[in-house]
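#lab-general

N.A. 3:47 PM
ok so I finally got the sequence cleaned up, no stray characters, all 229 residues accounted for. can someone with queue access submit it? mine expired

B.Y. 3:52 PM
send it over

N.A. 3:53 PM
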Amino acid sequence: MTSPYVHKLIQQLRAHHNQTNAESMKKYMRDQFEFIGIKTPKRRELLKEFITEHGLPPFAELPEVVRELWELPEREFQYIALTFLEKARKKLTTDDIPFIEELIVNKSWWDTVDLLAANIVGTILQNYQDCIPVYAEKWIQSDHIWLQRTALLFQLKYKHETDEELLYHLIRQCRHSKEFFIQKAIGWALREYSKTSPASVERFVESEHLAPLSRREALKVIQRQVQRG
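B.Y. 4:20 PM
back already:
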């Protein structure tokens, strides 16, 4: 049964259905999901109006609201669920990780998983660093590519706080993966860390047998800087 809060949100967004946009957005996402056809700027505007009128969901009700939004067919509702989580992310604890894992493994695609990994999981584990090895190892050893991708990307915004040894350890465990999204995540994680520690990343890339995609992505920033002289 849909809560009154989510019911009002559904009504507001579906009133702005745009079939042309919906078809284009669905095609861009490789037909993985349905869309109402609301582009990001308009969606943010509508959500801002909705929050002004109805407020944010109470923190105690956040899991219920997010789950209801996650179950809806149109992808815009999952994006709004992510916005609610981001606004509450500093209040989340490791007790919320099983709930976040549910979202990672359901309706999984890069557009939701990457935000969950870098913005939500990353924030939680930065606040509970003793738990990092447990979850990182659990996810990288799972047979679910989106949990593995989460393990690779949760430190994406850590910069100087990145646990370099852990990052390299996680990459070594899945560097032979044939999965595009794993190879891409390895490269992305290394590229982002190269902005903080370029020499270390360069040494790592040269010493490991990475997939060509991972290697290309990892060295993009470094090579750009070399070209600039």
